[in-house]
């Protein structure tokens, strides 16, 4: 499992790596893009797959620590059942959030947060400062109450088509075709 993007702050002026803060997300999209939408992980039940993902996250945290990242902020999973692609693939005609996918995010986040607390400053990672970042609740609130955050629509992606709207499928051709229809 590949990890998400890593952002390092605090390395100005030759600061030691262990004084820097590393912010990372550890691929929670594997739940939506691998477990739920492809047959590749069907040898796992959901609970076992979440355990596998948390173990991969743990291994990545240890690797970052081994590379000198002593201060880590790790983002949990967003409400993956509310992202436009998953609403299109598994949502109903009204494009509601997919509750099973969101529940998977909740379970993953709880297990990840528990693991982070166990690792934080442990004998295995002495001097480490590990923090869990909750993405799920603030993003779900934005989806459920978009006007509070200055949005009109929260059930479509940036293309505004209400279709798949992810990476290469969200481009000027798909957006133009939607506007013409």
TrEMBL record:
<dbReference type="InterPro" id="IPR050592">
    <property type="entry name" value="GDSL_lipolytic_enzyme"/>
</dbReference>
<feature type="region of interest" description="Disordered">
    <location>
        <begin position="1"/>
        <end position="20"/>
    </location>
</feature>
<protein>
    <recommendedName>
        <fullName>GDSL esterase/lipase</fullName>
    </recommendedName>
</protein>
<dbReference type="Pfam" id="PF00657">
    <property type="entry name" value="Lipase_GDSL"/>
</dbReference>
<dbReference type="GO" id="GO:0016788">
    <property type="term" value="F:hydrolase activity, acting on ester bonds"/>
</dbReference>
<comment type="similarity">
    <text>Belongs to the 'GDSL' lipolytic enzyme family.</text>
</comment>
<dbReference type="InterPro" id="IPR036514">
    <property type="entry name" value="SGNH_hydro_sf"/>
</dbReference>
<dbReference type="InterPro" id="IPR001087">
    <property type="entry name" value="GDSL"/>
</dbReference>
